[in-house]
Design goal:
Number of strands: 25
Number of domains: 2
Low-confidence stretches: 489-496
Family: Belongs to the FAD-binding monooxygenase family.
CATH superfamily of the largest domain: FAD/NAD(P)-binding domain
Shape: globular
Distance between the termini: 42 Å
Cofactor: FAD
Number of helices: 14
Mean pLDDT: 92
CATH class of the largest domain: Alpha Beta
CATH architecture of the largest domain: 3-Layer(bba) Sandwich
Structural class: alpha/beta
Helix content: 25-40%
Organism: Lentzea indica
Keywords: FAD, Flavoprotein, Monooxygenase, Oxidoreductase
Largest sheet: 9 strands, mixed
Protein name: NAD(P)/FAD-dependent oxidoreductase
Strand content: 15-25%
Radius of gyration: 24 Å
């Protein structure tokens, strides 16, 4: 049985970092609008509640991963997962956003009706179907598949006598103290897990197919601490935020234009922190250029410190098969383990897996094109959030929310009911939405909308550029088409 419950001006999907931020912007700037947040799980936090493996933390500094409207005040700039989760929940509670969240509501389908100028959204709640309508749909689901991570096929895994766990589904009762641990992977999750588990494990081995770039960073921002002391939190926060944006942009641009300089800096940093004679070329010299994949940050160089202390080993090889006692590698070497962690990556899911339709026509996402990296060609009154791959997610999320507010105000001011990005420029060619070489992106990118070769269809990865475009650029730019709801024939006869 399906029941229609209510109509809302704005329906936000997802109560994670993006969704709570979006709700704050909508509520603050447009207090007369009705809105609700639909969350498939039973709690606030999204990624920061889902991932509970040892040492889980941000891979961006919290002065940029934090919201623009709510300063991060803790000492650590590279923060642990529980602290970030508390920050998101406190943000929701202080603004009363938590009162607008419908937990256990999984959005499965949404269809736009031009004649009604609204979305009809189908939701599953406690095995019952619920239908809501909304004037604007704002999808803040991120792009991770929450149900399962990526695990390649490992021959013989069924005969392993120990415990195998994926970081996305970390069991609360897993005790690795005093045990031999192998972490398969070399990305951000592995770089986080390895030193955290080494604190109590007998030994941890990071088994990687190929090296990744690891950059040691201070866990505390000394400039932020000094400015907070001199200026106070409210005045210091935007300065530190822009300082970190500038530093991050500099590192990224230098990586793209002068990669040899960045590689040299990272190599020297590793040499300084690792034992004399350590095989840097084998274990910390990637085959790709910096920022072809996301840089991994090691707060206070913790990964290097645990290697230097003999608590962690890095092995660069491939898994041939699992054995009863551990792993056999393609080189013939064998590694013993009590616990194997498959930090082998994530799965992507476009727009939370929501099926979309417009006036009875099912939408094929790969045939749409992303407008300004936040709306889709041919889909009226719908926005989504995809953060930066080369900077903090929230920098882009905040800008998208500001743009949505501007767009809704523009509709009100001009008496429009709908806005639809329309690509009718034959010179625009298709490109991948995420121009990023990470494995988790390459595995799923064909299921996502496309980006275009020219603005406003090209996905920007520059915060400064996007700030000008989304916060101050024109709303009516020629590619966004505005219209009013068709007047019913009965109303026309009455007017006549």
């Amino acid at each position: 049985m399906t029941t229609t419950t209510e109509h809302l001006d704005v329906l936000i999907i997802g109560a994670g970092l993006s969704g709570i931020g979006a709700a704050h912007h909508i509520q603050s700037a447009l207090p007369g609008r009705t809105y609700a947040v639909l969350e498939a799980r039973d709690t606030i936090g999204g990624t920061w509640d889902l991932f509970r493996y040892p040492g889980v933390r941000s891979d961006s500094d919290m002065h940029t991963l934090g919201y623009r409207f709510r300063p991060w005040t803790q000492a650590k700039a590279i923060a642990d997962g529980p602290s970030i989760l508390r920050y998101i929940r406190d943000t929701a509670a202080e603004a009363g956003i938590d009162q607008h969240i419908r937990f256990g509501h999984r959005t499965v389908r949404a269809e736009w009706s031009t004649s009604d100028a609204c979305w009809t959204v189908e939701v599953v709640h406690r095995d019952e179907k619920v239908r809501l309508t909304a004037g604007f749909l704002y999808v803040c689901t991120g792009y991770y598949h929450y149900d399962a991570g990526h695990v390649p096929h490992f021959p013989g895994i069924e005969r392993f006598g120990g415990t195998v766990v994926h970081p996305q589904h970390w069991p609360e009762d897993l005790d690795h103290a005093g045990k031999k641990v192998i972490v398969i992977g070399s990305g951000a999750t592995a770089v986080t897990l390895v030193p955290a588990m080494a604190a109590s494990a007998a030994h941890v081995t990071m088994l990687q197919r190929s090296p990744t770039y690891v950059m040691p960073l201070p866990s505390e921002d000394v400039v932020a601490k000094m400015l907070r002391r001199l200026l106070g939190t409210r005045h210091a926060y935007p300065i530190v935020r822009w300082k970190n944006v500038a530093v991050g942009t500099l590192i990224y641009q230098l990586s793209r234009r002068r990669p040899h300089i960045v590689k040299s800096v990272l190599r020297k940093a590793a040499i300084r922190r690792l034992p004399p004679g350590y095989d840097i070329d084998m274990h910390f010299k990637p085959r790709y250029q910096p920022w072809d994949q996301r840089l991994c940050f090691a707060p206070d160089g913790d990964l290097f410190a645990t290697i230097n202390q003999g608590r962690v080993s890095v092995v660069t090889d491939r898994v041939a098969e699992f054995t009863e006692a551990g792993l056999r590698l393609e080189s013939g070497a064998e590694l013993e383990a009590d616990v194997v962690v498959t930090a082998t990556g994530l799965r992507l899911l476009a727009l939370g897996g929501i099926r979309l339709a417009v006036d009875g026509r099912e939408v094929e996402l790969p045939k749409t094109m992303a407008y300004k990296g936040m709306m889709l060609s041919g889909l009226p009154n719908l926005a989504f959030t995809v953060g930066y791959t080369n900077a903090s997610w929230t920098l882009k999320a905040d800008l998208v929310s500001e743009y949505v507010v501007r767009l809704l105000r523009y509709l009100d001011t001009h008496g429009y009911d709908q806005c639809t990005p329309t690509n009718d420029d034959p010179a625009v060619t298709e490109q991948p939405l995420l121009d990023f070489q990470a494995g988790y992106v390459l595995r799923s990118i064909d299921e996502f909308p496309k980006a275009g070769s020219r603005p406003p269809w090209r996905l920007g990865m520059s915060y400064a550029h996007d700030l000008l475009k989304l916060r101050h650029g024109p709303i009516d730019d020629g590619a966004m088409r505005f219209s009013r709801r068709p007047v019913p024939h009965k109303a026309l006869r009455q007017q006549a």
